[in-house]
């Protein structure tokens, strides 16, 4: 069906110091919808001059303590108002997400928008409940251990969950009293720009939260290299994450926190307590968000004795997950974010076949909406861990099936990866579940489910899946400095 833009006002200008502004040099880029290939609007192409302006605004706001100087309870009230503003504009924000990056509208609203609002509300609620510490000193001293905001925090987020990834980072950063400069992906900048307007409406002072759209080598690099940025938080590919760490070191040794790629193993033992549930989780997990998730369970490790039965059930489910118009209420898998990413997914599929994996289903680009970018959910059998499709992050609905013989073999193959973001174990044996979960090198291990969690638990990975954790109270560690104040007491009683 046609995409109706009549209810939307699409403003692609940056938000710096509380104002909508064009790029300093006037450059723009086209924002194209993957739903049908149409140009949605033009967006300011921010560069170093725009990053300089945003950082200067953020630094001035921090130095003047417009936000950092407010009591935690005051920041709490503003963040809760922001969460309420997000929910009040849920339909608008969900439509922006869908038009911009192709995810089904039903999930853009029920998952992304609501989770973003919940995240911002949760950190607002948390900030006036955090206590500092007093060290166990002798009577001749009083030692205070206090948290202080870093100062100016740069945030770079990916295109797959534009609003939610922004919330995961800006919520604890703002709650702690920092000023923020956000660089959204050039593939999906619209919801971040609207979020900045809603923040101003909620009472976040001008200069405290700035959004500069643009390309990574221009705006992103300028932010990571900036000498007046105190910390950089990044979610994206491992390749770019490594560059972020290099730039942080090349500049002012700013704190750098990176949440990167994954190739998550989903391990199903023959004693799985509910095979149908495991099948549903495996198929839904690789198809959710079109497979464009760093934690997608893209390696399915099946005990050899149940492989055929499992795959029969999985292939029978695939018709439910065929791509369709993301704006239709019943669609469960939408469009790939753009032509470049679609071509990347198709290249991996071709490489899997060339390296000897057996294509069981899918593998073709389709066009349920003329002009859009869509690919069928794809399943490969006979995959080994030395194949490219088992080692590299595809970021598409491509499932690699690997067999194992016993628990030790499953752990060995699961850990044979540069990544360590998430994993899952399906077994009715509690001892086995604990032993395998403990042996897996992953930031999160799911048992008899996949991807259930909430804002109270940390998200992040081992190895080249990144450094630091989003979500939970642990996220405050990224956006604060610890200060010791040692007070001498000369005359104890």
From TrEMBL:
Determine the domain of life of the protein's source.
Bacteria
Q: What is its EC number?
A: 1.2.1.5
- Using the record, list the residue span of the signal peptide; answer none if the entry has no such feature: none
**Which top EC class is named for this enzyme in its record?**
oxidoreductase
InterPro entries annotated for this entry? Ald_DH/histidinol_DH (IPR016161), Ald_DH_C (IPR016163), Ald_DH_N (IPR016162), Aldehyde_DH_dom (IPR015590)
Q: Give the protein name, as stated in the record.
A: Aldehyde dehydrogenase PuuC
Q: Which residues form the Aldehyde dehydrogenase domain?
A: 24-484
The protein's gene is named puuC
Q: Which family is it part of?
A: Belongs to the aldehyde dehydrogenase family.
Identify the species of origin. Tepidimonas charontis
Which keywords, in A-to-Z order, does the entry hold? Oxidoreductase
Q: Which GO terms describe its molecular function?
A: aldehyde dehydrogenase [NAD(P)+] activity
